[in-house]
Amino acid sequence: MASTLYILNGPNLNLLGHREPEIYGSQTLEDVRLMCEAAAGQAGLETVFRQSNAEHDLIDWVHEAREAAAGIIINPAAYTHTSIALLDALSACSCPVIEVHISNIHKRESFRHHSYVSARADAVIAGCGVEGYVLAVQHMVRLCAMG
Ligand code: DQA
Fold first, then answer.
1. What pLDDT, on a 0 to 100 scale, did the predictor assign at position 1?
2. What is the DSSP string of 14-33?
3. Angle between helices 29-42 and 131-146 in degrees, nearest 10
4. Which of 34, 57, 58, 70 has the most CB atoms less than 10 A away?
5. 53 DSSP 8-state letter
């Protein structure tokens, strides 16, 4: 049985900690990776943690996860609001999917209020800062245990 969580990050999240810190905070994506690895490790799960600015990379990684992952945690960043292709890729997966946003997208500009990915996500976490990733890992552990 798969025991690996795929944690995928979309465009501009490589700039986390430097980009608009008043919205996204001062912790870097490397900090987030370490937090996720620690949370998953406590449950005996491995993580694959990746970021890309390219939509096709995210889609290819979801295809990979389709075969290899116990669950997918994804912050699709701006592709949240635009990518039917990413929704379709996630819809082809049978494992649990959790969508994470660092900021509360519903409190921001109206173009951020709609998420294509939410149509497939089993849970959505928004507005908890980078702590949302840890909450997502913890919830994913419970979803995986439920089978
Ligand atoms: C984000 C919210 C998106 O609207 C935005 O495009 C991002 C980050 C978040 O984590 O809050 O890049 O997904």
1. 61
2. GGTTTS-HHHH-S--HHHHH
3. 30
4. 58
5. S
For range 48-57, the mean pLDDT:
98
Active site residues: 24, 101
Q: Which residues, judged by CB distance below 6 Å to any ligand atom, belong to the binding site of ligand 1?
A: 12, 75, 77-78, 80, 101-103, 105, 112
Structure tokens at 141: 């552990």
Which residue in 54, 58, 67 sits closest to 4, CA to CA?
67
Contact 2, 105 (CB under 8 A): no
pLDDT of residue 21: 96
Question: Which residues pair with residue 46 across a beta bridge?
Answer: 4
Q: Rounded to whole angstroms, what are the CA distances from 131 to 17, 69, 121?
A: 14, 22, 18
> CA 85, 54, 52, 16: dihedral to nearest 10 degrees?
-100
> Cα-flanking dihedrals φ and ψ of residue 3, to 5°?
-130, 30
11 Cα to the center of ligand 1, angstroms: 9
Contacts 24+ apart (CB under 8 A), 108-112: 111/81, 112/80, 112/81
Tokens at 48, concatenated: 């694959």
